[in-house]
Structures are given as structure tokens and as C-alpha cells.
Design goal:
The protein is globular. Helix content is about 80%, strand content about 0%. It contains six helices and no strands. The mean pLDDT is about 95. The protein folds into two domains: about 30 residues, no CATH class; about 80 residues, AhpD-like (Up-down Bundle). The chain is mostly helical.
Length: about 120
């Protein structure tokens, strides 16, 4: 799982009871027949449908960590277009691409040899 953003860490440190309740809700939602990849792609679809930019960013990072490919996420976006509308999908597309570029950069940084 990707490292959570600093603001998320700070918020959960300041409000531990809320963080614990949120964790229970998340864990309860994960119980069922869908594997992690399917869950992450569905969470992306829900985030796109809800128009929540931060949730789209988070869903992309978690989907990539679960093994989602850019093509899989593109299909989520194309499926959402007829429901949420073209402008909303284009907005989500820009977020998805931004997060994919960041992930590629992190991957490249981690695979670069350390200078001596």
C-alpha cells in the first residue's frame, strides 16, 4: 500500500478516535468475494462518480499498488463517461494521468543506482 499523504497522517494523529472508526468502516467494506484489484478499481469508479478529486488521486495510487494497469483505469473512466458526463471524466482523466506520472517517477527514482 502506498504511503499516506502527510495531511492524512497529521489528521489521524490529531483525531485518533475518528481514524479508528474510519479504519473499521474500510475493513468492513473489504470483506467479500472481490479481490483487491477489483475493489481498488471500483473505489476509483466511485471516486470519479462522486467527483472527489482527492479520492480519485488516492484510488489511483492504491489501484496501481494493487497491480492495476493504465489500461484498466482508462476503462473505468470510459465506463463512467455515460453516467457522470464527459467533462467530469476529462477532469478525472487529468488526475489519473498526474498520479500515473508521479508513480512512474517514484519507480524510476527507486530503481536508479545510488551515487557513490
Amino acid at each position: 500500500m502506498p504511503k499516506p499523504p502527510e495531511m492524512f497522517v497529521a489528521f489521524t494523529a490529531e483525531f485518533p478516535a475518528l481514524a479508528a472508526a474510519w479504519s473499521q468502516i474500510r475493513e468492513a467494506g473489504e470483506v467479500g468475494p472481490l479481490d483487491e484489484l477489483a475493489q481498488r478499481l471500483l473505489k476509483l469508479a466511485v471516486a470519479v462518480g462522486a467527483g472527489r478529486d482527492g479520492a480519485v488521486s488516492s484510488a489511483v495510487r492504491k489501484a496501481l499498488a494493487a497491480g492495476a494497469t493504465p489500461a484498466m483505469m482508462d476503462q473505468v473512466l470510459t465506463l463512467a463517461a455515460s453516467t457522470v458526463g464527459f467533462p467530469a471524466v476529462v477532469a478525472a482523466y487529468s488526475i489519473v494521468r498526474r498520479e500515473q506520472v508521479k508513480a512512474d517517477a517514484r519507480k524510476a527514482d527507486s530503481s536508479s543506482p545510488e551515487p557513490h
